[in-house]
Specification:
This protein is an alpha/beta fold and 263 residues long. The protein has one domain: LigB-like (Protocatechuate 4,5-dioxygenase, Chain B, 3-Layer(aba) Sandwich), CATH 3.40.830. Helices cover 32% and strands 20% of the residues. The chain is built from ten helices and twelve strands. Helix 1 packs across helix 4. The chain is globular and about 45 Å long. It starts with 10 loop residues before the first strand and ends with a strand.
Length: 263
């Protein structure tokens, strides 16, 4: 299943932006296209996307993952794209063992494949779709602590050469989007910068208390599903005490595309 001594993997938080990232000439797209050259090649990938939440953890379990076009109103070209990646039974079993050992229930969900929070960035990073992928749901809970614990439970897979990804957006308020190329507003930059400062200082308590400590949190996240993948990625490698902001930019004015590496 694995090499005798696979190279340990980091965990990543990726700002996936709007679905048309795949069609856009944006800095975030070029970053994701070149990201595979900056990390070891994984044996498999576990990705938690903002676009799948469940009362208890679920994961995809299909051998042939479907490409779910869970968006509307975009150019027809987007709906013709697919990412024909495979799942991995052995990885489902490993995730079940680790999450169960941490006291968390997880099951195979009815979702037949990957939503755009998963397949859009992965199709830029690994366009050949040769690395097996299991998508893990978020919890319906809005708790940073709960999602951090999910990441902690997954941390052991990194030693097996498996890449853990949280895919969301550090500023995500669709009502405040602006034409592409518009600079971010002060409130959006302030929240994005606060996260950068707290992550750089490894200030876990402040990050877990984001709802009371961060500026403009409800402007940045009227609903918080795009923030929760950050905590999954953090938890998977927080003990390594290594945090790197690998990319920073904004799309549609106030949509943060920031990406982080942990470990």
């Amino acid at each position: 299943m694995f090499d005798q001594d696979p190279q340990p993997m980091p965990s990543l938080f990726l700002g996936h932006g709007a679905p048309d990232l795949l069609l856009s000439d944006l800095p975030a797209r070029h970053f994701l296209e070149n990201l595979r050259g900056r990390i070891p090649t994984p044996k498999a990938i576990v990705v938690a996307s903002a676009h799948w939440r469940a009362p208890m953890l679920q994961m995809t379990g299909t051998a042939e993952q479907e490409t779910i076009h869970d968006f509307y109103g975009w150019p027809a070209e987007l709906y013709a794209l697919s990412y024909p990646v495979k799942g991995a039974d052995w990885l489902n079993k490993r995730l079940s063992e680790l999450l169960s050992a941490a006291g968390m229930s997880v099951s195979i969900g009815s979702r037949p494949g990957l939503d755009h929070g998963a397949w859009v960035p992965l199709s830029l990073m690994y366009p050949q779709a040769q690395i097996p992928v299991v998508q893990l749901s978020l919890l319906a809970s809005d708790s940073p602590q709960d999602h951090f614990r999910v990441g902690q439970a997954l941390s052991a897979v990194r030693r097996d050469g498996i890449l853990v990804i949280g895919s969301g957006g550090l500023v995500h308020n669709l009502a405040r989007l602006r034409p592409e190329g518009t600079p971010p507003e002060t409130w959006a930059s302030a929240f994005d910068d606060w996260l950068f400062d707290r992550l750089s200082e490894h200030d876990l308590q402040a990050l877990l208390d984001v709802y009371t400590k961060a500026p403009n949190v409800r402007l940045a996240h009227p609903s918080v599903e795009h923030l929760m993948p950050l905590y999954v990625a953090m938890g998977a490698a927080w003990s390594d005490d290594k945090v790197e902001r690998m990319h920073t930019s904004f799309s549609y004015g106030n949509l943060s595309m920031a990406c982080y590496r942990f470990g």
